[in-house]
Amino acid sequence: MLKILEMKAAIIKKFGTSDVFEITDMVIPKPKNNQLLVRVFATSINPIDWKQRKGNHRFILGSPFPIVLGYDVCAEVVELGSEITKFKPKDIVFGVLDNKYGGALAEYALGTENCFALAPRNIRFEDAAAFPMVALTALQALRDKAKLKPEMVVLINGASGGVGHIAVQMAKMMGAKVIAVSSSRNQAFVESLQPDQFIDYTQQDILKIKEKVDVFFDVSGIYSFVKCKHLLNPGGVYINTLPRPKILFHKILQVFTHGKKVKTLLMKHNNDDISQIGQWVSEGKLRVEIDEIFNLNNISAAHKYAEAGHNKGKNVVIIN
C-alpha cells in the first residue's frame, strides 16, 4: 500500500493556451476493481493533448476541472484492483490511459488492464512512453482499416511525425511499397526509415503525382477524400485520423468512385496490440524518434513546441 498520500501533477483549471498549466499537489487516486495504479516515469505529447487543452473536446468530455491531461505512459505498477490478473506490483508497463482526458501528467495515474502491456526491456523509459498511442494508431489504421497486404502501395502524408514515422516502418514490415511525404527539413530522417520513395511536399504537389496508390494515409489531415480520390486505385482506401465535418458526404461520394473507400480512425485500447508493439520494439523492428525531452515543470513549453507542428517524431515529458 502507498504511504505517500499526495503527488505532483500538471493541471488546467480552464481551457486555453499552453500557459494555463499549473503544477500542484493532488491526492493520489485510488484504483477501482478493474484498474491499476501506476507510478508514471514518462509520458509523451500527442496532438489530442494540446487540442484538449484548448477545449476542442469540451462538448464531448465536459469540463471536469481541475483536469490532468496526457495519455501515453511508461510506468511502474503500484497497486492493483481486485479484478486485475495480467500484472503484478513492480511490473514496468507502457500503454495509453483510458480515463476522460487521460491523467498522465502526474506522478501517479490510473488505467484499466486493457491499457497496458509489459514495457520492452531493451529501451529507455522515455522511448517506451513515446510509442503507445502513435503505434496503436498506425497499426490499427494499416492493418484494420486499410487491410494492408504485401506489394500494395501506401502513401503516408506526414511521414516525419509521431504516427507517420511509425506507419512508415509498419507498412514496410507488412511488405507494402511506401511513398513517404514530408518536407526537406526532415528528409534525411524519413529516408533513414527506408521508404521506397520520398516526396518533399514543399517542392512537389502530391496531388499531381502520376503513380496510383492503394492506400492514402493522410496522417497530417490536410487533404480530403474529394481532393485525393483520383490518386487511389479502384478499391483503394483513404484514411484520415482527423475526422472531418464533411465525412458523411464523403462516405456517400465513395459509392460513385469504383469501390474506393473512406475510413476514419479512433484508436482503440487493446492489450494484445500493445503487446505486439512491445515485441516488435524488443526485436529491433520498430523504433521511435525522440525530438525533445521536457520535464513536468516546463510542460507549458512542451505543449507550445508540440503545437507548433514541426517536430520530428515524438516529444517526451519526464515525470519521475
Could you explain the architecture of this structure?
The chain is an alpha/beta fold and 320 residues long. It folds into two domains: 6-131 and 288-318, Quinone Oxidoreductase, Chain A, domain 1 (Alpha-Beta Complex); 134-264, NAD(P)-binding Rossmann-like Domain (Rossmann fold). Helices cover 26% and strands 29% of the residues. The chain is built from ten helices and 15 strands. It has helices spanning 47-54, 58-61, 125-130, 132-145, 162-173, 187-191, 225-228, 247-253, 271-282, 299-308; strands at 6-12, 21-27, 35-45, 72-80, 92-96, 108-112, 116-118, 153-157, 177-182, 197-200, 213-218, 232-240, 261-264, 290-295, 314-318. The strands form three sheets. Strands 3, 4, 5, 6, 7, 14 and 15 form a seven-stranded mixed beta sheet that branches. A six-stranded parallel beta sheet has the order 10-9-8-11-12-13. It is globular, with a radius of gyration of 20 Å. The mean pLDDT is 94.
